[in-house]
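Q&A log
Question type: sequence-to-structure
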Amino acid sequence: MMTQRLLPGLGLILIVSLGIGCGSSNNSGPPTPHNGALVELPDRKGFLEIVKQAASGKAGRSQIVIHFLDRDRNPMSGAPTAATFKGQASGNKPVALKPMEGGAGGLISEPIADRAEIEGEMTATIDGSPVTVPIMIR
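Response status: OK
Response body:
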């Protein structure tokens, strides 16, 4: 008898708790142009799409590729032509990101040590103001 009274209440608690935490994430919506992770830029200026790729011909090394996207996830007009990544590991020096060869529209780093997670901050100048965004890439 007691169980029959508890079941409807437990069902309601389950439904409410499933709804909590269901919010929008930056990766919701259509897929990103380069299958990367999205990080929202401050002041709703758009997004960074971050891709970690194996460095060609360099075992155990990766490169960070970033693309600046507008709110509609299209290439940002007037996107920065340079950025810096500073990893959180102690002793990491800032790594410059420069335009990709062939006009691919993104910025790419020199090969860096490949880790399961690359975590740190990306800094660039957008609309004349410096912007620093925390990033984590797996």
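Response note: The radius of gyration is 20 Å.
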